[in-house]
Amino acid sequence: MTSFLGGVSRTLNLSYLKALPMGTTIHIHSRVIQHGRTMALIRGEMTSTDGRTVYVTAEHHKVGVPPRRRGSETEKVADERGGGSREKEAKL
Questions:
Q1: Quick count: other Cβ atoms within 10 Å of Cβ 62?
Q2: Angle CA 71–83–80, to nearest 5
Q3: DSSP string of the chain?
Q4: What is the pLDDT of residues 7-56, one digit of tens each?
Q5: Phi and psi (nearest 5°) for 72?
Q6: Partner residues linked to 74 by β-bridges
């Protein structure tokens, strides 16, 4: 299964159905509806502990993106004189 830790959200929809009183204990249920090589669909609900009251529903479409290295990366840039190449520091 593809790791989506480096991914981004394509869409994130939340529907607030009922006010949640302060201090209320809740359960959060989520399930992967579908996943492919680069995309996944996750649905979830925030409910009371007995499951009778639904406070929030959620739908999340996520796209997996390979993580980038932090800090500087070196990229090769063609030498303007036509001979060889030189390296250039790029901050990402």
A1: 19
A2: 65
A3: ----TT-EEEEEEEEE-S---TT--EEEEEEEEEE-SSEEEEEEEEEETTS--EEEEEEEEEE--PPPPSSEEEEEEE-TTSSSEEEEEEE-
A4: 889 999 999 999 998 999 999 999 999 988 889 999 999 999 999 999 99
A5: -85, 145
A6: 89
